[in-house]
Design brief:
Layout: E1 2-3, E2 6-7, H1 43-72, E3 81-83, E4 86-87, H2 93-106, H3 108-112, E5 115-119, E6 122-126, E7 134-135, H4 137-146, H5 151-156, E8 159-160, E9 165-166, H6 169-180, E10 191-195, E11 198-202, E12 207-210, H7 212-225, E13 229-231, E14 233-236, H8 242-256, E15 261-265, E16 268-272, H9 274-280, E17 281-285, E18 291-295, H10 297-304, H11 306-309, E19 319-323, E20 326-330, E21 335-338, H12 340-350, E22 358-360, E23 363-366, H13 372-376, E24 382-390, H14 398-410, E25 414-415, E26 420-422, H15 423-427, E27 438-443, E28 446-451, H16 455-468, E29 472-475, E30 502-504, E31 511-517, E32 521-528, E33 534-539, E34 543-546, E35 550-553, E36 567-578, E37 581-592, E38 597-600
Parallel strand pairs: 3-8, 5-13, 15-22, 35-38
Antiparallel strand pairs: 1-2, 3-4, 5-6, 7-9, 10-11, 12-14, 15-16, 17-18, 19-20, 21-23, 24-32, 25-31, 26-30, 27-28, 29-30, 31-32, 33-36, 34-36, 36-37
Helix pairs in contact: 2-4, 9-10, 14-16
Length: about 600
């Protein structure tokens, strides 16, 4: 055992405490070897007495040191250690945990009190239990026991150890987003979109949002201190900048469509024209906003049409169709085609060049991705949800044709367990070449003509079908204005490429998306294996109702009038039951802006 930097001897060890000679005042060393037997004390006897006294002191110090060491090192937690004012020093870990639990019980009212939070310019309160705020007692005691302590401080020192605080980051982020309200804005992801063979940039714009990491620390500290918390809004930029977008256009997008590329295979040659290159060349941003080019060989094949079809035979996935109210297997088949990964890589390498624009590829056997055996394992056997919305104008209107085109693109799609379905990812860009037409769409707070207008109605229908199937909502955004043809809150818009609709198949079974339409309705059904008794929606009351304004617009072919609608906020709750019990209750909230009453005319004098 170590005490004050010197070693205390044990039973089988020689003392290592060095005792130096002691000189006493007014006493000179006596060279006489033996003192007289009787009589007054002589200097020699006096010296020996003092040396004996010194030895006794040393022995006493050593004995006392052993006791002090035992005192200082008693328990798992160093003496003088406190957490939240509770003395944990000198205790075992179990005893320290009980002492800390007792202290937390005394502070329960304060620790469970709502935390005043200012997010941007809005104030709210966070309940600790709602965001998982808690003190990890075992981790705190471990930190107190493992913290360094100097031997002297174990006797007379004191130290404070901060408690280990835990919080559910996901629940905290959701609560702060709710508190933030309409102060924030979504990030505009960078993109490059081809209109024909002309690349057009979509420049990034920052999100205005909560600094989640900073908010976690601020909320933890404010909770313990019992004071208000301020969470500022920060700008979060995509990883790729405006300059990155311009560089990709100059170095890749424009050169890519400046001339055709020759594809040579062992079955012959095919020319890939600039228009097909533009269809297949994609610039996708990841979740961080990093823009990356790639060649979508599936879209390239579709653009080449018969040209590549003469050289290869595409494999066909096994599929399902609904016949007689039941899913029926459509067999797949093997094919022989160019390896997609190699073709995409090699084509991307030659696209920036002005010459040498030739790619060589071998035709290889190609098996379907989804075989009949794999399809049978997915357990798609019954309809688990269906949803229908109505549209005006009949099938002759461009808007209705866009809805039907989107339905055809998605019909028969199979989403495997654990997969996330992206509507933008499935259809790709919805342009003229894909069969979409100009129809009214909301841009900048008003209705304007735009290619693919009306697809948001199909998106809403698809969203509701996935919603009532109990599938996990990954990404959706309701309209800025309320339209009575949609269910309030439980609806979604879409806009290429910024806004997408995604859901995740969080069941152990596959999901088949089946679409159908009439002259006035669009229907989406989900087929799988039913795992829930019911999925229903409960609405809260509308609140913060605001009236629309009247706005006069310059008349002309691009002006679209509107009757206007009120704005309001509302909550919707998805209630999922299984085995007669509510197993999930999810809250969806949205705030609709009042849609102005747009009049295509000059304002009255």
């Amino acid at each position: 055992m170590t005490l004050y930097g010197e070693k205390v001897p044990s039973a089988d060890d020689r003392p290592t405490v060095k005792v130096t000679a002691v000189s006493w005042p007014d006493v000179e060393p006596d060279p006489v070897a033996a003192p007289p037997a009787r009589g007054p004390a002589t200097p020699g006897r006096f010296r020996r007495g003092r040396l004996l006294l010194a030895g006794g002191i040393v022995a006493a110090v050593l004995a006392a040191g052993t006791g002090l060491g035992a005192y200082a090192y008693a328990g798992d937690v160093p003496r003088g250690t406190t957490v939240l004012g509770a003395e944990l020093g000198g205790r075992s870990r179990a005893e320290a945990a009980r002492a800390l639990h007792d202290e937390l019980a005394r502070r329960a009212a304060a620790l469970n009190a709502p935390i005043p939070v200012t997010v941007g310019e809005k104030r709210a309160e966070l309940k600790p239990g709602d965001i998982g705020l808690a003190i990890d007692v075992d981790a705190t005691v471990a930190a107190a026991a493992e913290a360094e302590a100097h031997p002297v401080s174990r006797l007379v020192g004191s130290r404070t150890v901060e408690p280990v605080v835990t919080v559910d980051g996901t629940r905290l982020a959701a609560a702060l987003r709710t508190a933030m309200g309409d102060q924030g804005r979504e990030m505009t992801m960078p993109a490059i979109i081809f209109t024909g063979t002309t690349p057009k940039p979509v420049y990034p714009k920052p999100a205005l949002t909560v600094d989640t990491d900073g908010a976690v620390q601020a909320v933890k500290a404010g909770w313990l201190a019992g004071g208000p918390v301020t969470v500022p809004l920060v700008e979060k930029w995509p990883a790729s900048s405006r300059e990155d977008v311009d560089r990709l256009i100059a170095e890749l997008a424009r050169p890519a469509v400046a001339a055709p590329v020759t594809l040579t295979t062992d079955g012959g040659k095919v020319t890939i024209p600039p228009a097909a290159i533009a269809r297949g060349l994609r610039f996708s941003a990841d979740d961080a906003g990093r823009l990356t080019p790639r060649v979508d060989v599936k879209r390239l094949r579709a653009a080449l049409g018969d040209g590549l079809a003469k050289l290869e035979v595409a494999p066909k996935d096994a599929g399902l169709t609904i016949s007689g109210g039941k899913p029926k297997v459509v067999p797949g088949r093997a094919g022989r085609q160019v390896d997609a990964a190699a073709l995409g890589r090699d084509l991307l390498a030659v696209l920036p060049r002005t010459d040498g624009r030739t790619v060589t590829a071998a035709l290889k056997p190609a098996e379907p991705e989804l075989t009949e055996a794999k399809l049978a394992e997915l357990g798609i056997k019954e309809r688990v949800s269906t949803f229908t919305t109505r549209f005006p104008g009949g099938l002759s209107s461009p808007r209705s044709q866009n809805i039907v085109q989107a339905a055809k693109d998605v019909d028969g799609a199979i989403v495997r367990p654990g997969e996330t379905f992206s509507l933008n990812g499935h259809t790709g860009e919805r342009g003229y070449d894909q069969g979409y037409k100009d129809a009214p769409t909301i841009v900048g707070g008003k209705l304007v003509p735009g290619v693919g207008g009306g697809v948001s109605q199909f998106t809403t229908t698809l969203f509701n079908a996935s919603y009532y199937a109990g599938l996990e909502d990954v990404e959706h955004k309701p309209h800025s204005f309320y339209f009575s043809r949609y269910p309030a809150v439980i609806e979604s818009t879409i806009y290429w490429p910024q806004l997408d609709f995604k859901f995740r198949n969080n069941t152990p079974y596959g999901v088949l998306i089946d679409t159908s339409y009439t002259s006035s309705t669009i229907t989406v059904s989900m087929w799988s294996t039913k795992i829930y008794d019911s999925v229903k929606t409960e609405y809260g009351p509308r609140r913060n109702i605001t009236q629309p304004k009247t706005v006069y617009l310059d008349p002309g072919p691009d002006c679209i009038s509107a009757t206007g609608s009120v704005g309001f906020a509302q909550d919707a709750f998805r209630v999922i039951k299984k085995d007669g019990k509510v197993v999930k209750r999810e809250k969806f909230s949205w705030r609709y802006d009042p849609e102005p009453r747009f009049i295509c005319a000059k304002p009255p004098a």
